[in-house]
Amino acid sequence: MKRKLTKIAFAAFTLSALALVLTSAASAPKKGDYDWLKARLEVTKSYTIEVLQAMPEKDYDFKPDADQRTFKAQAYHIAYSIDYFERALSNPQAAWNPGDENSKSKEELIKWTIEKFDAINKMILESDASDARTAGIISYLDHNAHHRGQIITYLRLKGIKPPNYK
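and the corresponding structure tokens:
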């Protein structure tokens, strides 16, 4: 009798677990599926802005060698790529037309970068989750970290202590 009850309990547990898995997998994604990313998105924004602010405007034209972008061009590339990723997450055929990467001042670049971060963060946080969108978000965050790391190196080459990583 005890053995029969154990088998019944195990079968009931297994069926309950299976039903939970199947109903969870079958439910449609909801708006706000990326709420778990909110803190990371905000830290990415604030840390990148701190790095942009750390370079004096007089040194925004600095580049380590002739083959590298200027700090200004790197900052422009960061802001433009945020704009691009926001468009590409909704339209994989989004065009890449960055324009003159040395055309904006430090103040204009920081303002533009803040606007682009605010727009993409809002779009991500209001999006339905999907594997393709998640892959795009990871690419966006990776790309931003890559170029932010490059400009941190520029700061160090100028003898400027970069902001502490968050």
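(Above: one complete record from the training split.) The chain is about 65% helix and 0% strand.
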